[in-house]
Amino acid sequence: FRVDPSVRHSVWSLTIGAFFTWVAIFGANQAMVQRAVTCPTLKKAQIAMWLNFPGLCIILYLCCFIGMFMAAFYEKCDPVTTKAVTDSNQLLPLFVMDILSQVVGLPGLFVAGLFSGALSTISSGLNSISACVLEDICRAYFKSHFREIRARLLSQIFALAFGMMCLAMTYVASLLGNILQAALSLHGIFGGPLLGVFTLGMFFPCANKWGAYSGLFGSLILAFWIGIGTAVQKPFLKKAIMSVEYCNFTAFNASLLIKPAASNVTVVRDAVFPLYKLSYMWYSTTALAACVVIGLIVSFITGATKPSELDARVICPIFDILFPFLPESIRKPLRFGVVHEG
């Protein structure tokens, strides 16, 4: 419960920080938005999102329960400390082999499930980014109309090219440590600034395009700075499970057991730049706040947009939605001059 942004997983980072991470994933991520806009009506898109919600919760709860069970299973013999595995991402396959290796075919089915889930996610991402490049770059800046066969061929070429780039990036991904943390970190680094731009445009009538550009790129630079700095300096993370008390040392080379001295840990932790200690769960929230603050400052410097000149449909009357019970005399000033009637 400590209000410390450097704590990797706290009540606050897993509620407030994760809230903005998932809002960015569902509200500003191209793969999710593309799924929503393929629905014929807004109502059906909302139904699709609500149908997705319980399935996602089940998956996340299963992951949590698996992690808790693994922590209990390896409580007195940590495979990472004993070098039974070289990376924490290998713990789950090791656990499956420890528990299910006597059941013929089941470990293979587990691995097949992992790969099918990963390939499904990758394919939808590649499809989304190729469609985005075709529609938002090629059609917007080069040629507005393509024949259907040429548009399909271009999208396939883009998907192939980005797929090759993904293969090249696997080496970088192998250096990012825990794969779930790396994925959520990237969602925060890229999704936070995008969510900030949407927030700036939807809730702040005074924002202009220069504020949006400045907020987007400023928050993106900040997020990259934190993310890359954390990956390079690697601040010390206290692990809960490190005991080797009940290990069978006939299966391990005891000389490989490496325990860092407490003094070294302290020195390393103190040497890390404070911003690099920020929990990855706060990346999206930090980028969102930076985008809004930078965007508003630049908008006021360059000339704020007049609310009377705005199309009211692009501004969300947030106070009318959250506090509809308030009298009109209070809610009207909170619209900041935007006329929503009619």
Tell me the β content.
Answer: under 5%
Task: Give the helix proportion (percent range).
Answer: 55-70%
Beginning-to-end CA distance, first to last residue: 46 Å
Content-based structural category: mainly alpha
Number of strands: 0
**Measured on Cα atoms, how large is the radius of gyration?**
24 Å
Sequence of secondary-structure elements: HHHHHHHHHHHH
Number of helices: 12
Transmembrane segments: 12-29, 50-74, 153-173, 179-203, 210-228, 280-303
Keywords: Cell membrane, Ion transport, Membrane, Sodium, Sodium transport, Transmembrane, Transmembrane helix, Transport
GO biological process, one term: sodium ion transport
GO cellular component, one term: plasma membrane
